[in-house]
Amino acid sequence: MPTGLQHILNVGGQSLGNSRLGIEVTGHNISNAQTPGYSRQRPDMEPNNPVQFGSLILGQGAKVARIARAHNEYLEQAVRRETQVHGKAEAYEHNLSRLEGYFNPDLTSTIRMRMDSFGSALRDFANMPEEPAMRIHLLETANTMTTAINVTHANVTELQSDISEELSVECDVASQKLREVALLNKEILALQMGDETRPHDLEDRRDLALKELSKLMDIQMYKDDRGLFTVRGPGGQLLVEGIFSSEFKLDYNSGHKQPRIVCSDFANTKTNDITDKFLNGKIAGMIDVRDKHAQKIRDNLNEFATKFGSSFNEIHAQGFGRAEFSEFNGRDFFEGLDGQFEAAQQISVSRLIQQDTNAISSGMTSRTPGDNVIANELIKSFKKPMFENGTATATGFYDNFVATLGSATMSAKNELKAAQVVKANAETQKEQISGVSLDEEAANMLKYQHLFTASSKIITTADEMFKTVLDLKR
């Protein structure tokens, strides 16, 4: 029950403490204005319960009920969702653009450019099959074409290896984020005191860790009755439950063409292959390029080298060359197509022709100088529809898969632009609620300063009144 002047001192003292606490929270906001993931905090005031004094009901000042966190869970979920989409679009476009760069028509060393040069040299050779210069030129253009195939295949293979190495790094990052979420779950559980008193700074760090994890993969969160997050990943894989977390790593011994991503259980006793279950996030975009587009291009290059080289060899083996090679046939023009290795990796002009261009077949009959029947048949092989179920020539097949890659890259660029806009909008909405405004915090600082001064005035006034009462007794 209030007791006159003592009641005034109590109200003033508590008001002084509330103002001091408001300044502390404001200072905390200002200190973390540039901290990633930080959500603005504010002291929520509420009046103390009133008491009866005679026939009157008197208030007893105010108290800080809680330190509230400016946070919207639905906007946080929207940001995580759009971060997943953006993470995939960004990685997908980046790696697809790298892949497309190997087939850029502005380059002078593409397979198509080298093949056109080889076809032109072959026509010159057919016109003058007896000229050594024409044979040497044909050999040089054939070498540059096979080298272009080898280099392009090596570039695509290296891109796949680069993506796998980056996936290994991202798996380590994801595992670290899962451990961080589990540790923060533990710390939050130890510090929280119901819904009114929660460690908001730790919750901000947990939300930031989940957002960074969302950039890597598609995840879903569920909050239990203790306020702790349970996290599930691609394909519903359990990643975090309470204080326990899973771990990601690459399996290079899976028997697949490319290493697989596996996720361990909490005890790290068994693993689950989830490579094909990633739908969104950076890892999904990287897997799509590595296992679908890059592997398809690699397979196309091998098919291109195998079918074109074999068809060319079949015709060439029927012909006769010059000098000591004018009496027998059966020679291949290209080698490295025996299937021991990937054709695009090994195709080259045969060593016999490298040593002596007279071994290049031009005529259909032996010892017939100037015979160019086989040379003309070799030119026709460029127009032979041997790809895509007999509907596409070698150049047509090459143009088709390069055009498909270019179309996919253009679509990826458009998807990335759209994802950037949507993600930026979601982050802006979240920042409007949770972000720290220095102007607003400066205004709050002045407000609490004035409240502190006014509260001090209440105490000094009550003190003067005490002195007056004491002086009356003298």
Oligomer: single chain
Largest sheet: 4 strands, antiparallel
Shape: rod-shaped
Helix % is 55-70%
Give a written overview of the molecule.
The model has no long low-confidence stretch (mean pLDDT 91). Helices cover 59% and strands 11% of the residues. The protein has a domain of 103 residues. Strands 5-6-7-8 form a four-stranded antiparallel sheet, covered by helices on one side. It has eleven helices and 13 strands. With 474 residues, the protein is of the alpha+beta class.
List keywords for this structure.
474 residues, alpha+beta, 3-stranded antiparallel beta sheet, 11 helices, 13 strands
Brief synopsis:
By secondary structure, the protein is of the alpha+beta class. It is 59% helix and 11% strand.
Write the layout of secondary structure elements.
Elements: H1 5-31, E1 41-47, E2 51-53, E3 56-58, E4 62-69, H2 73-101, H3 111-127, H4 132-191, H5 200-216, E5 220-223, E6 229-232, E7 238-241, E8 244-245, E9 248-251, E10 260-264, E11 271-273, H6 282-316, E12 334-335, H7 343-346, E13 348-349, H8 351-355, H9 373-380, H10 394-434, H11 438-473
Antiparallel strand pairs: 1-4, 2-3, 5-6, 6-7, 7-8, 9-10, 10-11, 12-13
